[in-house]
């Protein structure tokens, strides 16, 4: 299947991968800024989120995204991933390194990360609420835990709407299919990388950011003292310039790809 997606603008391709608390609508504040900067912006919904249906068999998110980019004729692209979308972005950058010109990771998850007691308790509480049929409670838990203190009410309500929709779509599925998780090596990532974390986020995501800044060949870590888990929604007026500056610096928005 082809993932639900939007394309806007023209120029070098920038792909936006959403958090698993959201869907592609989370990037509403970023799309106009990227288009104005001369980028072709692609944003897609992973399976079971937004307008993409739940899986109908075993699947792999990274391969779904590559299939979409092939369909759109994007041989090279910059990747911007938030949380679970960052985990997918890391897999893509490791498995198809020659295609990724630059990589931005916002409070990213990481395959194989051992969850802290705090993150584990959050997941157990979410599971318990969903098993009890309390979708509203599970949605509120995610909003209260993930959205930072500087987000306005409109951003909080947007996250609430996206998260509740994802829960409803996934809970309605007749059958659950596994995601295929092929092995990959972070050492294969060659793209210059900006890793962003927030002081008000769960500690795991700051730990992951520090680890990636040390393990990736060309990475820097920026910690935002005001941010929760979704800084691009919480303060887009701060995040957008950071994003644009990095993309210009790494030539993802300047029409010049890496050689070799």
UniProtKB/TrEMBL annotation:
Q: Which GO terms describe its cellular component?
A: membrane
Q: Which domain of life is it from?
A: Bacteria
Q: In this protein, which residues make up the domain named AB hydrolase-1?
A: 12-236
Q: Which UniProt keywords apply?
A: Hydrolase
InterPro entries, alphabetized = AB_hydrolase_1, AB_hydrolase_fold, AB_hydrolase_sf, Epox_hydrolase-like
* SUPFAM superfamilies assigned to the protein according to its UniProt record, in alphabetical order: alpha/beta-Hydrolases
A GO MF label: hydrolase activity
Give the protein name, as stated in the record.
Answer: Pimeloyl-ACP methyl ester carboxylesterase
- What is the scientific name of the source organism? Micromonospora kangleipakensis
């Amino acid at each position: 299947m082809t993932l639900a997606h939007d394309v806007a603008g023209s120029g070098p391709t920038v792909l936006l991968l959403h958090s698993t608390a959201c869907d592609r609508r989370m990037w509403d504040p970023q799309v106009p800024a990227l288009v104005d900067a001369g980028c072709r912006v692609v944003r897609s919904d992973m399976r079971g989120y937004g307008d993409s249906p739940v899986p109908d068999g075993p699947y792999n998110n990274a391969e779904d995204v590559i299939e979409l980019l092939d369909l759109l004729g994007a041989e090279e692209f910059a990747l911007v991933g938030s949380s679970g979308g960052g985990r997918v972005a890391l897999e893509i950058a490791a498995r198809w390194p020659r295609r990724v010109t630059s990589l931005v990771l916002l409070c990213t998850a990481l395959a194989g990360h051992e969850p802290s007691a705090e993150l584990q308790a959050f997941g157990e509480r979410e599971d318990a609420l969903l098993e009890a049929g309390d979708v509203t409670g599970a949605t509120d838990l995610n909003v209260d835990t993930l959205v930072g203190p500087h987000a306005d009410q409109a951003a909080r309500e947007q996250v609430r709407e996206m998260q509740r929709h994802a829960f409803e779509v996934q809970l309605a599925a007749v059958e659950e299919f596994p995601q295929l998780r092929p092995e990959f090596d972070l050492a294969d990532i060659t793209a210059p990388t900006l890793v962003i974390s927030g002081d008000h986020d769960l500690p795991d995501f700051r730990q992951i950011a520090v680890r990636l800044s040390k393990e990736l060949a060309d990475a820097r870590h920026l910690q935002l003292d005001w941010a929760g888990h979704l800084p691009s929604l919480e303060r887009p007026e701060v995040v957008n310039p950071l994003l644009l500056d990095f993309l210009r610096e790494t030539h993802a928005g300047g029409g010049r790809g890496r050689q070799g």
